[in-house]
């Protein structure tokens, strides 16, 4: 079996699956059970500095979005950082790290944006033997109002400043956790780099209102008639997270900076996708909260088998493999032509492809006698909508036209893949050469 042992900013763990800072990592009891289940590491639920206690709501703190099968797709929360006393957490972290020296124990921190506050807490964390710290600049609710969390994460200058303090006052690796609630993820990532961060982790949760209670006329979850935005996570946010990870991995300013990928990781495949786009490991929250700690078994088994099947012998070999293939739209090969094709044996004659194409797209699907649906190549622009609305997997697929084959829509032969594209006016490389 492929070796899943992972090293992230010098922190070793038996596999690249860490639990993200959240309820699953809020206490010793949970973390011990997580390690027994096989998790490679944890980022301990965010600690704050000593001071007035953190008090959570006593009403519901979650909202959700489900698929038609009631599968949880998106989770929204209005929970704050840990509400357990600092010294209790520190004592527990020390005990857990002592008993699981081979697992990664990183401590998430969020204290006021003042040098003294950071300087004060870091030695206490170091004393636990923890492997590193993660700076929570992402929490989108509750703490932002107090000048912490995403209030810091949205201002690159603050990120740089706090990261620099942490690098100054601790020898532990510093991972900066980024909020997605910004316009361009490169700005905070670059700031973290300037401040000397060892790595970035992303994403934290996305500002969201998952639903409105139409009787109470208030957002859900509703607390005594009022609601507030929460932080969105789970499978629904994975596409946003993947893009942000890829942006950091492929841009010169931030390329090479280690990335811990977070956001909707539920299966080994999700994890492999984050790795391929540049992550060195992944963190998981919602999947563990939905299915329990043992979900890591499938992740380990699946990633390992897939790596074996592809001949990858280490996680590091997978990291960044897809990054060279992430490009800007203008670099896409416009000579690449495909057409939809319908497998008549698999078709259940529901007509969704027809409705979608006829009403909203290119009128390229014909309904024939007996509800037989056929693609009209002369109208098909290969948009792929029919593939996505079809309820039967692989019933509609896209067939690539060979070089020299006639494209019935344009009436032109498909050029050789690379030959003609190099001189195509839409190819920026060709323009540069002129
Ligand atoms: C209930 C809940 C509490 C969370 N608390 C924290 C926190 O204290 N600190 C933090 O950095 N992230 C916190 N997060 C965010 C997660 O660590 C993670 O970034 C996010 O959930 C995305 O991952 P996922 O899609 O696997 O859940 C919390 C998430 C949830 C659902």
Number of helices: 14
Question: How many discrete domains?
Answer: 2
Beta strands, count: 22
Name the shape in a single word.
Answer: globular
Ions, cofactors and other bound molecules: flavin mononucleotide
Strand arrangement within the widest β-sheet reads 3-4-7-8-9-10-15-16
CATH architecture of the largest domain: Alpha-Beta Barrel
Q: Which class best fits the helix and strand makeup?
A: alpha/beta
Q: In percent, how helical is the residue content?
A: 25-40%
Provide the CATH topology of the largest domain: TIM Barrel
How would you explain this protein's 3D organization?
There is one protein chain. The chain has about 425 residues and is an alpha/beta fold. It folds into 2 domains: about 5-325, Aldolase class I (TIM Barrel), CATH 3.20.20; about 330-434, Alpha-Beta Plaits. The chain is about 30% helix and about 20% strand. The chain contains 14 helices and 22 strands. The strands form 7 sheets. The protein has an 8-stranded parallel β-barrel, surrounded by 7 helices. A 4-stranded antiparallel β-sheet has the order 5-6-14-11, with no helix packed on it. β9 (about 175), α6 (about 185-195) and β10 (about 200) form a beta-alpha-beta unit. α3 (about 115-125) packs across α5 (about 155-170) and α8 crosses α10 (about 295-310). The longest helix is centred in the last third of the chain and has 16 residues, at about 295-310. Flavin mononucleotide binds next to β4, β6 and α9.
């Amino acid at each position: 079996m492929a070796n899943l042992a992972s090293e992230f900013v010098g922190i070793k763990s038996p596999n690249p699956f860490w639990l993200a800072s959240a309820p699953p990592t809020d206490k010793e009891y949970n973390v011990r059970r997580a390690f027994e289940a096989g998790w490679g590491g944890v980022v301990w639920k965010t600690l704050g500095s000593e001071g007035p206690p953190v008090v959570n709501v006593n009403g519901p703190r979650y909202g959700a979005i489900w698929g038609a099968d009631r599968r949880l797709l998106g989770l929204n929360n209005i929970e704050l950082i840990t509400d357990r006393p600092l010294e209790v957490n520190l004592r527990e972290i020390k005990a857990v790290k002592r008993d699981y020296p081979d697992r990664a124990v990183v401590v998430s921190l969020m204290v006021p944006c003042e040098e003294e506050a950071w300087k004060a807490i870091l030695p206490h964390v170091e004393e636990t033997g923890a492997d590193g710290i993660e700076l929570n600049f992402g929490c989108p609710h509750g703490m932002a109002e107090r000048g912490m969390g995403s209030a810091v994460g949205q201002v690159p200058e603050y990120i740089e400043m706090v990261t620099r303090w942490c690098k100054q006052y601790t020898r532990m690796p510093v991972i900066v956790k980024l909020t997605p609630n910004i316009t361009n993820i490169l700005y905070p990532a670059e700031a973290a780099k300037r401040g000397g961060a060892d790595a970035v982790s992303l994403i934290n949760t996305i500002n969201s209102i998952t639903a409105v209670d139409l009787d109470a006329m208030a957002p859900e979850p509703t607390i005594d008639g009022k609601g507030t935005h929460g932080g969105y996570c789970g499978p629904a946010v994975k596409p946003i997270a993947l893009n942000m990870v890829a942006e950091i991995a492929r841009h010169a300013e931030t390329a090479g900076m280690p990335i811990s990928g977070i956001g909707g990781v539920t299966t080994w495949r999700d994890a492999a996708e984050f790795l391929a786009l540049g992550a060195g490991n992944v963190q998981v929250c919602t999947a563990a909260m939905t299915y329990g700690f043992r979900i890591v078994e499938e992740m380990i088994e699946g990633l390992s088998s897939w790596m074996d099947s592809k001949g990858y012998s280490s996680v590091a070999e997978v990291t960044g493999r897809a990054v060279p293939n992430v490009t800007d739209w203008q670099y896409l090969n416009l000579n690449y032509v495909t057409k939809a094709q319908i497998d008549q044996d698999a078709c259940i004659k529901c007509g969704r492809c027809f409705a979608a194409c006829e009403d909203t797209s290119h009128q390229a699907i014909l309904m024939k006698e007996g509800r037989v649906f056929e693609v009209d190549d002369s109208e098909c622009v290969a948009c792929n909508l029919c593939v996505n609305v079809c309820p039967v997997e692989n019933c509609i697929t896209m067939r690539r036209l060979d070089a020299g084959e006639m494209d019935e829509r344009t009436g032109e032969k498909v050029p050789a893949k690379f030959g003609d594209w190099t001189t195509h006016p839409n190819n920026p490389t060709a323009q540069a050469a002129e």
